[in-house]
Write a structure and sequence with these properties.
about 130 residues, mainly alpha, two-stranded antiparallel ribbon, 6 helices, about 50% helix
Length: about 130
Amino acid sequence: MKTNGIAVLLITSLFFAAAALARPLHRYDYTTKSCRSFGEGQLEWDSRPWGVGGKVFRQLCKKCHFRGNEAGASFLQVESKTSKGWNRVFAERKVACARDGAWDGLTMDQQLKLNDYLYRFAFGTMDIYDEV
């Protein structure tokens, strides 16, 4: 009985370790022409759902991009785009939010951390067979 519990704990730990490694740890930012490494430190924290990036997404983006909104904004969730797609949104700024001034209240640092968060948790980032 005790052996089964240890085996379940070991398998569960391996699963979560593999899932954690599947997430990207680096992102090239086209606006600043720099590599952003969020594998550890403050940037790792800020690019999580509870960090600056996740908070900005919930407080700013989800204010309009929810199901059934009256503004006509498309429903968005983190997985709505791939990592490359989110990078493109921030680099090209062709989306209505960037053009109509919704992003004007964000500092460059907040925009970078929002992009880090969206890039890190985008569609397809949970594939445990991805390279790190």
